[in-house]
Amino acid sequence: MKRGENDKDDFVRLCQTEIKEDSTQTDILQQFQQADMADRVLSWFNRDVLFNGVLLNAFQHLNIENMYACRYFIQNIQKYFNEHKHMSAVQVFRSSPMKSELLHELKSYQGKIIGIKSLLTTTCDRSMALLCQSGENIQKRVLFEIDADPQINGVKPFVKTSPSYESGLEDAIVFMIGSLFKINQVVEKEDDEEGGGDSGITIFQMTLCAAESIDSLKMMNPINDKEEKDFIGFIQLQYDLCTNLQYLDGLNNVDKILENYLNKSVLNDNNLIRAWDLLGKICAVKNQLDQSLFWYKKALDLKKKILPKNDSSVADSYFYIAYVYLNKNDSNQALDAFKQVLAISKEIHGEDSRLLMKCYGQMCIIYEDQEKFADLLVCYNQMFNILLKHVPIDDQQFAFLYNNMGKTFANLGQYSLALGYYKTSLDIKLKYQFRKDYIANNYKSIGIVHKSMGNIEQARTNFEQAITTYNQLESRDEKIISEIEKLIQNLSTS
């Protein structure tokens, strides 16, 4: 299955949790599953409250798991906006009935920047926007007047919809999720006896803007967000959203903004550490590895001055640094950093820590690349002992560990031990119905060990079973099947 299909399946499953027994929405969701998004992404978004509501709920509640599940839909929206972005300046309008409490809150944001957590549909026709509120029994009438210039550097793209867009508005302009608007002025139009179109309406005059400066970001206040987040926290939130949703373009210039903030601000040690760690993460994601190391090491040096040497935050720094060295292909420096993590974590947690598992797992990769199989086995045994404290010995989490230990013993020429671990791994994968390619690979590995032991018929049986299992896949890898067929042919000549 392709990655995009997995992405779509995750989004469909999230939608299914929302629709429950609603047969109408079930039908819509089934149509969506079978459809190609292509240029119809906005139509799908606006077609039913289902898709709009799922996205809005995820962003309003800042549910990272649900936002990640929405990535298929959001990425298609992003692609559509980038390909069809409007290129000229516009003035657009959006009306909205609003409760008094929310209106009062929104008025307090004059001169500040607000962000939207869903797509925003507007119209170029002012009278049409006002008409949408006429005759309605509402508490307060509100009109947003928005000036948007796509040529301003850093603004999110917006699109002018096609006639097929099911917005209910002609000449609709739709703004991207996360668009920022500065509220320049709030104008109150009092009721008059003639009851004109603007009578009794509050007008918010706004401008589409970019988060390109510290000052603008510090002014940001999301609608309905009662708690103002500190600036570093705001950047951290942006980092979390961009990385979880795989929108790495959203991190452009963020590191420079944060650096400028540091240059202009006097921060205490804790906030300096937060900022430097965050800069390390941002630079690492952007593959600026030397810069990432610079910031991580600055944070580490300060932590070592003000924190106990066995503080978990110090271990975290070494862990980040190790990962950067891995990406720089400097395995020895990475190993040294991982060993520091191990030493601190063992002092804090003893021999039972999930962080230890992560460390050993990464060290295994290094030792395997270096063909240090004895060291590799030590790490695998440590992982085995930690895992055994949390789950039964035949739990599915052991499947890959047994497989890797089998591979290591095979590399050491200890074929009987390798065979035992491979078979145990296979039993677990069959029990828990692992993916067919994982199971097939196990049969192949067992076949190779039997061949090395001179067990020709057992080798042949396992190779044939591997091919049979691979053939059950929807999309077969003909290259792998060809490799196994060659292994079978070689048996005949042995």
Describe this structure in words.
Among the domains are: 3-79, no CATH class; 85-219, Toxin ADP-ribosyltransferase, Chain A, domain 1 (Alpha-Beta Complex). It has helices at residues 3-19, 23-34, 41-47, 49-60, 64-69, 71-84, 100-107, 126-131, 214-219, 231-244, 254-264, 269-285, 289-306, 312-327, 331-349, 354-369, 373-388, 399-411, 415-431, 436-452, 456-470, 478-493; strands at residues 90-98, 113-115, 120-123, 140-148, 158-160, 172-175, 180-189, 201-209. The longest helix has 19 residues, at 331-349. It has 22 helices and 8 strands. Helix content is 59%, strand content 10%.
Widest sheet, order of strands: 1-4-8-7-2
Order of helices and strands: HHHHHHEHEEHEEEEEHHHHHHHHHHHHHH
* CATH architecture name of the domain at 85-219: Alpha-Beta Complex
CATH topology description of the domain at 85-219: Toxin ADP-ribosyltransferase, Chain A, domain 1
How much of the sequence is in beta strands? 5-15%
The biggest sheet, with number of strands, parallel, antiparallel or mixed sense and barrel status, is: 5 strands, mixed
CATH class of the domain at 85-219: Alpha Beta
Number of strands: 8
Output mean pLDDT. Answer: 82
Coarse shape? globular
Number of helices: 22
Unreliable spans: 164-169, 213-229
The Cα radius of gyration reads 29 Å
